[in-house]
Amino acid sequence: MNGSRKEALENLQTGTYGVEGEKLDWSYYDTAVLAVATQVHRLFTNPLGAGGKTLDFTNLTIAGQIPQGQQIITRAIKVFYRSIAAKGTAAVQALYDLFATTTVQVKLQNKETMGIWTLQELIGSASLFAVTPTVAGDNIPMIQPKFHGIFPLNNPITLAALTPFEVTVSHHSAVDATLAGDHLKIALCGTMIRIS
Predict the structure, then answer these.
(1) Which of 39, 17, 153 is CA-nearest to residue 98?
(2) Partner of 130 for a Cys bridge, out of 19, 35, 93, 176, CB 3.0 to 4.6 A?
(3) Which secondary-structure segment (H or E) carries 91?
(4) Domains of the chain with CATH codes
């Protein structure tokens, strides 16, 4: 085998592991279960395996901290909402009320909040307007909100290894009973730098 072919093969076998670490597209996520009596959810405080949290609920392995040997530069916040059952049309207004009266904060220990937003802003809906036909058979089209659920951060939030943090979801009005049990998931997305 000539030298250039051997070098080419060796180059193709490198890159998976390295001493300088690696960069990955990554999301750390956590899920709150809505309840009428719960006004505040402190996300990322119960890690995977604690309090019954399985991998579909969270992927953070240490309570309130990015693991040692990792850093995530958060460039976007993603929001996901899932109902646990089919709902009646009245639940649409309850959902819109929840979006408008719920705030989300990213907090780092010993710092002021790193950002506070309404859920409506994070989900990406400028208008929330539920409609019921005035007369049977009415079908007047109206602009519908486009939920994209990705809120890009103009200024990234760096979560360094072992730095305590949490995302606080606060309902400023009681959660409607029709939404109780539904899942609200928040993901911190960006570039993870870790030792490989």
Answers:
(1) 39
(2) 93
(3) helix 90-100
(4) 19-127+151-194 (2.60.120)
Q: What's CA 171's distance to the chain center, in Å? A: 16
Q: Which two tokens stand for residue 187?
A: 């993901």
pLDDT per residue of the chain (196 residues) written in tens, 0 to 9? 566 877 777 776 676 666 677 899 999 999 999 999 999 999 999 999 998 899 999 999 999 999 999 999 999 999 999 999 999 988 999 999 999 999 999 999 999 899 999 999 999 988 888 877 777 777 766 667 777 899 999 999 999 999 999 999 999 999 999 999 999 999 999 999 998 7
Kindly state the tokens that stand for 35: 């309840």
Tokens, residue 127:
């208008």
- The residue written with tokens 């998976």 in the block is 16
| pTM for the whole structure | 0.86
Using the 8-state DSSP alphabet, how is residue 109 labeled? T
Rounded distance between C-alpha atoms, residue 66 and residue 5, angstroms: 42
Residue 194, strand partner residues: 22, 70
